[in-house]
Amino acid sequence: MEEKTKEFENVQTDSRPKYERFKTALFKVSDYFDDNQALMAVRQGMIMLIPLLVLGAMALMLASLPIPAYQDFLSSFLNGKVVEFLHFVRGAALNMFALALSLTTSFSYAMMRKKDRRVGFGDSVILMLITLMSLTGYLGIQYEDFSVTELGTVNIFTALFISLLSGMMYFKLKDKDLFRIKQRGMEADTLYVEAVSGIIPALIIVTFFALFRQIFTALFHVGSLQELLETGIDLLLGWIENDVICAVLILFLEHSMWFVGIHGSNIVDPIMQDHFAIQSSSIYNKTFHDVFILMGGSGAVLCLVTAILLFSRKSSVRNVSRLSLPTVIFNISEIASFGIPIVFNPIFLIPSVMIPIILCLISYGAIYLGLVPHVTNTVGWTTPIFLSGYQATGSIAGSILQAVCLVTGILLYLPFLRLFEERDARLLVKNVNSLTAELQRQEAAKAIKPLMERNDLLGGVARSLAADLKDAIKNRRLFFVYQPQVDSRGKCIGAETLLRWQHPVAGFIYPPLIIALAKESNMLHDIEAYLFDESAHAIDEIGRVIDSDFKISVNVTNESLAWEGFENCLEEKIRKNRINPKRLWLEITEQDALVSSHEIMEKIEHLKKRGHKFLIDDFGMGHTSLMYLQTNHFGVVKLDGSLTRDVLENNRNEDIIAAITELGKTLHFETIAEYVETEPQRDKLLQLGCTGFQGYFYSRPITLPELVEWMKVH
Question: How much is the pTM?
Fold first, then answer.
């Protein structure tokens, strides 16, 4: 017994590293897919076409919903004009889908390349036109027997192949000096230069695809790559007589193609109809495939969407799932496949291929054993789950089998959903750190630029984080801590309110990043209203316990002061908490103060008359800064950390601080030193004339209950 236990422990010990290695390898592959320009161009190109896909599929769903009463009404209402309208929408959305996909993929690829090289607007348009010429020429638009259906969903694979190869060739050729055409005197006209320099690449690319078509047709006797793929699958299935093996192979191929953004159903469906007819002797057929396997669309995506809605902790993924649920119910999977995403997501590759095969085997076995009747009725692929199971088999057992398959799919997707969230969390932490570093770099250079307007990865992270911030504000998940401020005797004279946000995945967010995102997304006033309310409440709570003259200071910005409702909001919070305005001080940074308008300075004076005292934060020693001190707008100067941190080692900083404190005596303002971390540093600042101190030497930022206890001692 003891030996068996040890053996079991050894197995457990060995299995964990194997799982970790599998997870690490999976995450590395996912990183590669995210960094690969061609793959991401396909995904973004497909995302752009979601409106077309959904419109076309919804129109088909409404036109073919298998309810007799509904169909009778539809055909008679307005003399069938509604049916005609639905067919128009479907045709307009899907009949030129391959052409649209080639254009969006080309555009996305050009935008990807823009990060690595100088790509202008003209390059993007020219590449799209070259792709258009290459695709239509390759599909035979120049021949009399050409049909517009060639530009629809049947040639998605060909469209992707041509658009990506055209993009790679175009930029490769453009980079060659040999193919650059220079026009003297026209260099300033960027669009003209881009157009002229694209002549030779366009000629080479179009010629290449013209020759490729001729060679391809001569070798394989088919008109397109997609047709070759269909022929190959058809031949492969022709050698296999067993229905189950055929079904497994079809599902594997179909969902593997979906992984790379190709509508596998468009390739597989015609083959299935040739090989599997609706007949009682055959269990597997087209309707069986649609009803018991493709629940929600390819990859049994209804199982994943349901798992996300029930178990996911990530709000953005839940939002995509909620958005996709109405279409997924009718087996239209595009919103979920490209929004979650499943396409080009290696983590979901295994379950999206494996689960349909497992559901097929479960359903096949249930029908083979007689637990569920054979599929004998044709059901449209857009028929919702449970209804389709009943109609296909003529029995409630068909609906029960679908329920079993749904639950099975949810349970199988769940561990991969957890992996997806873990990988996404790691990536988010990494990207938020990069975004924070970028903002800190801009702060150091004193050149703050909008983060959410960026078109790169950091811009996407900023927008995602801003969406989470909006949710955090709405649910009051932001919180505040207080850092005590003391006088020269070590007595607590108040505290500064500091904003904090602990993101559920990324952890604590750099406070200036919170403010930057709030400014850009027009959420700053909501944060400030919350800030004033909490600070006023803190003053009231402290006043109930401690009888001393103290204040709480809060940070405001120029945007705050320019807000028309600023004064009313501040006054309302003061009145609500019944506090004296003299106890609520307002801090504005030196950088904001220097660019304040005349109207803002007038508002500062008005607020001072109400009793509020203003502090100038992060104060340096510029000439303009000193000019502002003469205006008497500010009663307190808080020294910038760059001056106080190394005052013991930097004699120049020592002289600057001494000059500021001496000026304070003349102009009647107090001086508070921030970032005080050691006793020798405090003693030096005290010697130089500082009258107040704030920093970790006294206390870290603490919660309100901790502040009350701290003040009792100090």
Answer: 0.72
